[in-house]
Predict the 3D structure of the following.
Amino acid sequence: MPDISLDIPASGTNRKFLKKFLLIPAFLCLAVLVAYLAGVVYYQSHFFEGTNVYGTDVSKMKVEDFEKGLADYSLTIVQKDVNGNAFEETLSSSDLGISVSSTDELTKILKEQNAWKWPLKHNAVYAGRPTFITCDSEKVEEAVNSLRNMQKGEFINPKNAYLSDYKKGKGYEVVSEVNGNRLKKKALIEAVEDMVTSLGSSLDCDEAGLYKKPRVLSDNKRLNRLADRLNKYTSTNIKYEFGDNTEVLDGDIINKWISVKKGKISIDKTKISDFVASLRKKYDTIFRSREFKTSYGKTITITGGDYGWWMNTGEEEKELFKLIRKGEQGSRTPCYYQTADRYGTPDYGDTYVEVNLTEQHVFLYKDGELVLETDCVSGNSARGFDTPAGVYGITYKQRDATLNGENYSTPVSYWMPFNMNIGLHDANWRSSFGGQIYRTSGSHGCVNLPPDAARRIYDVVQAGTPVICYH
């Protein structure tokens, strides 16, 4: 490096200039020192730049400035309207009654500062929550009560998911819950107080879980199992076919028999009984009068007898209850004590035995064709053993039976009872049949037949074949 030299004249003027020139750095150093010392003094009572106390920037603040600054504090409450749209409301410091209970904690933080280090960069952060911020509980409650979500007409209560009523073609459905926007007041007050004492700036009610929630949601297993069971029951589709008539039992009927109480399903068995009783009343033919066209061409009304459809309602009710619980589908024949030849009119069909008690004559029809007719002898009228009129069914048939009664025991070859101990049978001890024999020399109630006629009838009839007796 080349040598540099200053040739300063040693005149008096130059000496003054040099003196002034040398004083400038001294003044600058003094100014810096004064500024530094002033900073030391300043930061004895003020927080360093970049100091954050419990979330609040207190740079260059005095302790009393912090307290005064609380007057500008505000808390934003984020809510949602009845349509689920978010909106905000702001509560001020005065709304909440905020105050500082003690400045000791702030003073301690301030004293911990090393004021001599003020020129250095500081990013002091004091985390946690202050213990010196308080709020007025009564004012907080009043402020909460003033919020829009707390006003009548501005909130919807939550609703649990539930089962719909039965809908034709759809059955039962789980109706989704309604969340609503009803705030939990007590929890909201606590949350506001907590937010204020920690100097929080915003409270989102939804995120904080401050809205009341439905207890039962649409994915509730118990609720869905209940819907499945109900839909299983109402999926039942049973078709009863009574000849040309059809009666259908399906969900549109069954749902009215079902009730749900405390999560338990009940099927009203009295409704099942009523349904079965309606079928019995409509389609049973036992003990009912019938129109009958005799072999003589005359149409008469016959009453009496126990022939016809006779539903076993007790058993049918039990079976129907089981079928509903299984959700069965398909055609069904009811349980019967006894059946007839066919549904509709006439129920006795076209294979039957016709007994004209007045004419003492018997006709045998098979598939609508007259295959036999013969005279007979019925019950003794003089002794009160008249053969009862009515429509009956052959109970059973038996070869070589012995008929026992009071003071008699009679063997027969063809026995066909139709009314308890009254029946058709051969009477080989008689030499004649028909006419007026029955009036004084009739049977104990049975229809006596010539042996060959009895045999031929025996060969045609089966258990259940109608026997139609009339005068």
